[in-house]
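Hey, resending since the last one bounced:
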Amino acid sequence: MDDFVELEVLGRGAFGTVTLCQRKSEQERLVVLKEIEIQETPEITEEEVKVVSSFHHPLIVRFFGRFTRNNNVFIIMEYMPGGTLWQYLKGRKGRLLAEDEVVRLFAQLVLALEHIHSRKVLHRDVKSKNILLSADHSVAKIGDFGISKILETNKSRAGSIVGTPEYFSPELCRGQTYGSKSDVWALGCVLYELMTLTRPFQASSVPALAVKILSGDVRPPDETYSKILRQLLKDMMHPEPSERAGVRACAACPLVAVEIVKLACSLGSAGV
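The structure tokens again:
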């Protein structure tokens, strides 16, 4: 900690505190320190470090290192000044995003999730609060791998019930094993938020929430959004994993594919 000046606590979660800091050795470098009590969650800490240190992708929050102090581990992460997607959407105060902005942000998340899955990793907590934005809100990056799972093979599945209940897939609600399609469901929930500014499923208790998710009863997005985008949302939120679109199918959607080509040309010059 001697190399850092603490500036602001950005958030507190179940597994740690996130603080904005400045490196003393690099006066202009702002970073985020995520502090985790090792004694409380040793396996989660080691898993997260193993996962985030393996990623080198412009749309995944960067990992700069870690150190241990007073029985706590500190993970040094990239600072994204635009805050979370959740905060951005709430700040819209009901003003819907234009379709081109929805598709631009969503395409970035598809690329990030495709990379994560290609490394045989399940994120298991894809949600708008774990998506971080650049200062102008044009770049979105997936972060927080605290409960991610490294699979032995691409066909391996997980069984632990973890994550944020509002983003639980139907298979999670049924207590079944799950795979990458569960992350796709959660990303579908994020797409729904991009189109409506609200979560698709909300309830006062986890059991009531599970009933809503399993019923599939959700208010459709505004029809000002194209039929192609609304159909993609349906495909991502199909109740049966075998019928649900995979991340590559999402990338192949014509709207998304065009945006991915644009991203391929612009990400390098954007310095992200």
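The longest helix spans residues 99-118.

Sorry for the duplicate.
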